[in-house]
Amino acid sequence: xxxxxxxxxxxxxxxxxxxxxxxxxxxxxxxxxxxxxxxxxxxxxxxxxxxxxxxxxxxxxxxxxxxxxxxxxxxxx
Length: 77
What we know:
Helix content is 14%, strand content 32%. By secondary structure, it is an alpha+beta fold. The protein has one domain: Knottin, scorpion toxin-like (Defensin A-like, 2-Layer Sandwich), CATH 3.30.30.
């Protein structure tokens, strides 16, 4: 896992993602990625970005082993 300057990550941290609850409309890669990223960062302080995949906005986060996702929220790992 790459960690940017000033960021720290423990051994129990890993990249994960989930479908944005706030992004509205279709999300097309390369066209809407910046909008998706902005919505995701505003959506949750744990989010480090966002990207379009299969016309949906997926938020990128750093998850911890103790992080539990809501049963109804799809996740990418």
